Amino acid sequence: MTYCVGLCLKDGLVFLSDTRTNAGVDQIGTFRKMTLFQKDNDRFFTLMSAGNLAITQAVKEILLQGQLLNGINLWTAENTHDAAVVVGDAIKQVYDRDHEALEKAGIDFNCNLIFGGQVKNERPRLFNIYSAGNFIEATPETCYFQIGESKYGKPILDRVLSFTTPLNLATKCALISMDSTLNSNISVGLPLDLLVYERDSLKASKLVTLDESNPYFQMIHQLWGERLRSAFNSIDEPNWTGANKDKSISAPAKKMGAVPVNHPPAKTKAGKSKAKSKIVKATKVAKAIKTAKPIKKAVVKAKA
What we know:
By secondary structure, the chain is an alpha+beta fold. It has one domain: Aminohydrolase, N-terminal nucleophile (Ntn) domain (Glutamine Phosphoribosylpyrophosphate, subunit 1, domain 1, 4-Layer Sandwich). It is built from 6 helices and 12 strands. The strands form 3 sheets. A 5-stranded antiparallel β-sheet has the order 10-1-2-11-12, with helices on one face. A hairpin with a 5-residue loop joins strand 8 (125-129) and strand 9 (135-137). The chain is elongated, with a radius of gyration of 35 Å. The N and C termini lie far apart (104 Å). The model has no long low-confidence stretch (mean pLDDT 91).
């Protein structure tokens, strides 16, 4: 599995991916999920991949070779949207070639990509491209995409990130998102590839690979855990007595009543009488059995 996150912000783009792949607990590998495409002073694209490694590598190879798909490729597309169409067409080409063999082998066609960048004279753009080759684009309201093991790193993005977040702050947010995922899922692992793309630069000016020895990521890992525990411990425990109304957990809900507690049905007088008579009868029987004398066998003597 993997985890990749891409952010599309007012000042540029942030891309972060891990490098772990696994096909079972004893088949762990390290493969780069981030690929860069640059044409000086004209365009800059980044592609991150999750899913079946053979499929994503095949798609990447078509793009790297510059094959024309419907007459264009990444180097000739007029804008980033058209470039995303090229990536989608590359997925469709691999699907047409391989899907029957994959179906016979019982393997799903699994390919999920984050693609983004900038063509000169347009704004930076970010796309999430699916296995069918179709895609959606990030907006100021939804300014990030995740692929792979996304659930562990999503809360920090939702709480902190917005379209106007500065690139450095967004980079910290993405790294904390990745650290949370690394801490909770063994199928995601170091090293990490990080690219911070500054708007209109058309080059990879801030590109780094981070491993366990990276001092900034070490600091993120240590401080985030400590601060989370500190924040957790600073929150008051639930109050059940109602002494402090501002922190009382036993305050009634406004839209629903309390959960009903069910008790066994009450016995009627007739029911009690029947039960009592059964108990008396059982007691008498037991007493009779206990006090009964053993029956002596009759002995018949034969006459001489």
